[in-house]
Amino acid sequence: MKRDLIRSFVSAMFFTAPALLLTVAPAAAQSLVQPRTWTVTPFIHTSIGIGDPAPDDSIGLGAAVAWDWTPNLGFEGEFSHLFDVAGSTANEDWSITNFSANVVYHFDVRHVTPYATFGMGVERSNYSLKNLDPLALSLIFDPSSTEVAINFGGGVKYPLRDRFIARADLRRFQANDLAPDFWRLYGGVTFILTR
Question: Is-contact 165 188, C-beta < 8 A?
Answer without folding.
Answer: no
